[in-house]
Amino acid sequence: MTFSLGLTGGIGMGKSTAAAMFAERGHPVWDADAAVHRLYAPGGAAVAPVGQVFPEAVVRGAVDRTILKAALTADPARLATLEAIVHPLVAADRMAFVRGHAAAPIVVLDIPLLFETGAEAQMDGVAVVSTDEHIRRARVLARPGMTEQTLDLVLSRQLPDDQRRARADWIIPSHSLDAAAAAVDAICSEILSQRPHA
Has domain 1-28+103-192 been given CATH number 1.10.3720.10? Predict the structure, then answer.
């Protein structure tokens, strides 16, 4: 049986780095953000349904995320409509990935809004990537174009870190690469040690 490990963490917590560590150890990693990019690309399953609700956001056969973001900023109430279209498509993409890696002992599912969307119900376990608030803010504010105001807006839509940590099966500390790598190794060892041997 494949173990579905949900991997999550707020903006700036180092989740992408942790996901890369699992991949380096040979575990398939599904990335929710990458799935959305595929769904929004030309021929993607989200283009037509999103275009029906946000016709201005479809440009040259693809969903233009900048235009879509502007439309949502102008009318935040439309976010629920968009999520009702996109979340089921993302979930289907995730399930197809898991089925396609049925022989893998561990499949890592990198989902930024894992708890917010209720996706933890489909996971065998959840790891939360976390670090100190001042480290997180410094990381995010170093990104091009990022402001305190934008960061606060993003954080307002995400579950607070202490609530994520309380619901996690494992916590990956990301204040240093060594600490994160040690936690990833420990999680993999624990999961693999519980697998029934053929």
Answer: no
